[in-house]
Amino acid sequence: MIEILTTGQLNTIQDLGRPGYLAFGISHSGAMDRPALEVANLLLGNDRMAAGIEVAYFPFRARFNVNCNVAVTGVDCQVLIGDRIYPSWWAVHVQQGQTIILNRPRSGARAYLAFTGGIDVPLLMGSRATDVKSGFGGLKGAGLTRGDRLNLMPGNKILLPEGGLGVKWAGQAENPGEPPITIRVLPAAEFDDFTPESKHAFTTEIWIITANANRMGYHLNGSVLALAKPLELHSHGIVAGTVQVPRSGQPIIQLADANTCGGYPKIATVIDADLYKLAQASATTPLRFSIASTDEAVNAILMRRDAMTKLQIDLRLHLGY
Amino acid sequence: MQKTAIRISQSGSGALLLDAAVGAFSDDVQHHLWEMDDRIRDVPGVIETALGMNNVLVIHDPLLINAVELERILRSLWLRAQAKRIAGTIHTLAVFYGGDRGEDLLAWAEHCRMTVQEVVQRHTSGIYTVAAIGGMPGFPYLSGLDPALAWPRRAIPKSGVMEGSVIIGAGQASVMPITAPSGWHILGHTNTGLFDPSKDPPALLQVGDTVRFAIAAVVI
């Protein structure tokens, strides 16, 4: 059992999400930075769908009342276990009674914590992800609070090297260094309904992530985007990454917990492979949109999948699971 | 039905949005999409669909079926689509109109230039069809609202609209399945729950079901 000592409501139990229920109006949810949680689970030999903790509020502290392995990935933050300091993208064995502290990162937004076996909360519609907006999944459908106790599923008790094991994977190299970060998009249904000036501004100017940025979506600040003529759209399904432009002319990027339908004009959609960059971008981060081709977007998915498969094979050979 | 021109656009690399709308919402177009939706789900490489109002979002694995091929299939399915009749369940929801949990009842009657009794009478005499479910868990888009009762949505959505709120937005009616922000107007509330994540299916209402509202009480 793991006891939460310091947390914020923004920290939630997540796995890779709840696809298949859009027809019931249910969001995909799941980790905002999916590859980070995938790697954390790979480091421990966990099932792909094992649930971990998405930490978006720091510092985070928890006490282990069990011997297990723990992995921290995602944002580059300082991890303290007992009196030792570890970097992120690291897996290590922890003893019953030890405490883990994730300190506030200098930049970036979300850390992922995985544990041997994954967190044992009820599977709802194929997932353990917390859908805070709708109040179900995870632990009582809400963010973690102090005193919460999390049980672990039976897992693969792999023997990690003394001092733990770090990992570098292809995705990390893409990690946005100096802002502005570049987010690749495909044009969406109403792209050509915007004025030429607005299309130009969208793809060339700098956009700032406002403080109104959470798992539902990021509101951006920049030039005012305008349609060439007014449009009335019926409610339609949307995906994570949809860039909507409401009447204010300021774009909103819909993300993991967004409503499954929308009615605003859509100028573009962030390609799947770049969603993790948004997950790691906090308020005030400047970004740029760059139009990609469908081939580029699909190739990026393939490269990501291949990198993940290669990492899995390497880890299996190395750790013998 | 004369098949209207559809627009198909990309929603990222793993989804296509098929938009069959021609101006105002059409029940006929929707019935064709109901039938087509079943066939789309059978296309290899399609993961899931989200039916909207006169449109459908098709999520696919681009490594199994590419967007160009899927678009070709969707166009051919649309040409062959038939109107689907669904013998859905009939649900009667008892509504407490007005009071603290129906804050817009009086303003609604005023907007419609009717008495409260009249708007409530007309709202309860309507026969509504679940055209689609979406937006939030179990949220029904109901067609069949008397056009005389229509009221444009709020300019600014209201936060924390309570579960069970009976609402209208523009020409559509609905009921809040969870507590969430909404730009629709609140007429009253029902105690019938529309969403339970532990049930299979999690939503009480299904596409094609019929909904009627009955008066439990009117508080002015």
Protein described:
The complex is a heterodimer of chains A (321) and B (220). Helices cover 17% and strands 27% of the residues of chain A. By secondary structure, chain A is an alpha+beta fold. In chain A, strand 6 and strand 7 form a beta hairpin. Chain B is α+β, with helices and mostly antiparallel strands and 220 residues long. Chain B has 2 domains: 7-80, Gyrase A, domain 2, CATH 3.30.1360.40; 90-219, Cyclophilin (Beta Barrel), CATH 2.40.100.10. Chain B has helices at 27-41, 67-80, 105-112, 116-125; strands at 7-10, 15-19, 46-51, 55-60, 90-98, 128-133, 140-143, 158-161, 165-169, 172-175, 180-182, 185-189, 210-219. In chain B, the strands form 3 sheets. Chain B has a 7-stranded mixed beta sheet. Chain B has a 4-stranded antiparallel beta sheet with strand order 1-2-4-3, with helices on one face. The longest helix of chain B is centred in the first third of the chain and has 15 residues, at 27-41. At the A-B interface, strand 16, strand 19, strand 20 and helix 5 of A face strand 1, strand 2, strand 3 and strand 4 of B.
Q: What's the CATH superfamily of the largest domain in chain B, by name?
A: Cyclophilin-like
Note the beta-strand portion of chain A: 25-35%
Instruction: Count the domains of chain B.
Output: 2
Which segments of chain A are poorly predicted (pLDDT under 50) over 5 or more consecutive residues?
Answer: none
Count of individual helical segments of chain B: 4
Q: Please give the domain count of chain A.
A: 2
Report the CATH C-level class of the largest domain in chain B: Mainly Beta
CATH T-level fold name of the largest domain in chain B: Cyclophilin
Beta-strand portion of chain B reads 25-35%
Note the main sheet of chain B: 7 strands, mixed
Going by helix content, strand content and strand pairing, the class of chain A is: alpha+beta
Gyration radius of chain B, rounded: 19 Å
